[in-house]
């Protein structure tokens, strides 16, 4: 499958890449080879193949999801630079709540 220069530029735009004319000419045949390989893979019969998340045969090594005691509200706020009763105080990000633009 041969790609036109416009096809390569459109793919570059979708990938947020800025390519020079020389790069467009160099990338065209490479992308065509990649698409040819993907097309070749799509011809494989995968009817009896189980879906998988990794190509490696690994076991999950995560710890058990046991409930652990957390911080109290006072402990969490102990080193806060600014607080208001039971909350952290942070500077406004989008202006103040009552401000009108």
From TrEMBL:
Record-listed E.C. numbers: 6.3.5.-
Catalytic activity: L-glutamyl-tRNA(Gln) + L-glutamine + ATP + H2O = L-glutaminyl-tRNA(Gln) + L-glutamate + ADP + phosphate + H(+); L-aspartyl-tRNA(Asn) + L-glutamine + ATP + H2O = L-asparaginyl-tRNA(Asn) + L-glutamate + ADP + phosphate + 2 H(+)
SUPFAM superfamilies listed in its UniProt record: Glu-tRNAGln amidotransferase C subunit
EC class: ligase
Keyword entries, A-Z: ATP-binding, Ligase, Nucleotide-binding, Protein biosynthesis, Transferase
Keyword Transit peptide: no
Pfam families: GatC
Transmembrane intervals: none
Biological process, per Gene Ontology: glutaminyl-tRNAGln biosynthesis via transamidation; regulation of translational fidelity; translation
Molecular function GO terms recorded: asparaginyl-tRNA synthase (glutamine-hydrolyzing) activity; ATP binding; glutaminyl-tRNA synthase (glutamine-hydrolyzing) activity; transferase activity
Annotated family: Belongs to the GatC family.
Job description of the protein: Allows the formation of correctly charged Asn-tRNA(Asn) or Gln-tRNA(Gln) through the transamidation of misacylated Asp-tRNA(Asn) or Glu-tRNA(Gln) in organisms which lack either or both of asparaginyl-tRNA or glutaminyl-tRNA synthetases. The reaction takes place in the presence of glutamine and ATP through an activated phospho-Asp-tRNA(Asn) or phospho-Glu-tRNA(Gln).
Subunit structure: Heterotrimer of A, B and C subunits.
Name the UniProt record assigns to this protein: Aspartyl/glutamyl-tRNA(Asn/Gln) amidotransferase subunit C
């Amino acid at each position: 499958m041969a790609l036109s220069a416009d096809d390569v530029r459109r793919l570059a735009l979708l990938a947020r890449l800025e390519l020079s004319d020389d790069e467009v000419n160099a990338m065209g045949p490479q992308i065509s080879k990649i698409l040819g390989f993907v097309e070749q893979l799509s011809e494989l019969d995968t009817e009896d193949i189980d879906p998988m998340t990794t190509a490696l045969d690994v076991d999950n090594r995560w710890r058990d999801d046991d409930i652990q005691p957390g911080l109290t509200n006072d402990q969490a706020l102990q080193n806060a630079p600014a607080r208001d009763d039971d909350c952290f105080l942070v500077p406004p990000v989008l202006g103040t709540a009552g401000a009108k633009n």
